[in-house]
Specification:
Blueprint (H helix, E strand, L loop, with lengths): L14 E6 L3 E10 L3 E11 L7 H11 L5 E7 L3 E6 L6
Antiparallel strand pairs: 1-2, 1-5, 2-3, 3-4
C-alpha cells in the first residue's frame, strides 16, 4: 500500500504565502509545523488594513521585489490558514 505524501512536507524550507481568515497575509520560509502551528522564519506579517493595495497585488509585489520581513519567527495557528502556496507559484 503506498503512503500519501504529507503535502506540507513538500513546502518545507521554501518561501510560502499563507492567506488567513483575517485581513492579514503571511509570507516567509516554512521551517516546521505540528498539529497546531505553522512555523515561519524571516516572515512578513502584513495587515492589509494598513495599505491601499489588495492581497493579490501585495503578494505579487513581494514576489517581484522581495518582501521586508518584520518577524524573525512566527507561529501561526493552522486553523487560521485558508490557503498556503509557494511564493514562486504566484502568477502575474
Amino acid at each position: 500500500m503506498s503512503e500519501t505524501p504529507n503535502l506540507l512536507e513538500t513546502l518545507l524550507k521554501q518561501e510560502v504565502v499563507i492567506d488567513v481568515r483575517s485581513e492579514y497575509v503571511y509570507i516567509g520560509k516554512l521551517m516546521a509545523y505540528d498539529d497546531h502551528y505553522l512555523v515561519l522564519k524571516q516572515a512578513d506579517v502584513h495587515d492589509l488594513r494598513d495599505s491601499s493595495t489588495t492581497r493579490e497585488v501585495y503578494v505579487l509585489e513581494a514576489k517581484r521585489h522581495g518582501y521586508p520581513w518584520n518577524r524573525e519567527q512566527v507561529l501561526l495557528r493552522r486553523e487560521e490558514a485558508i490557503s498556503i502556496s509557494l511564493l514562486a507559484d504566484v502568477r502575474e
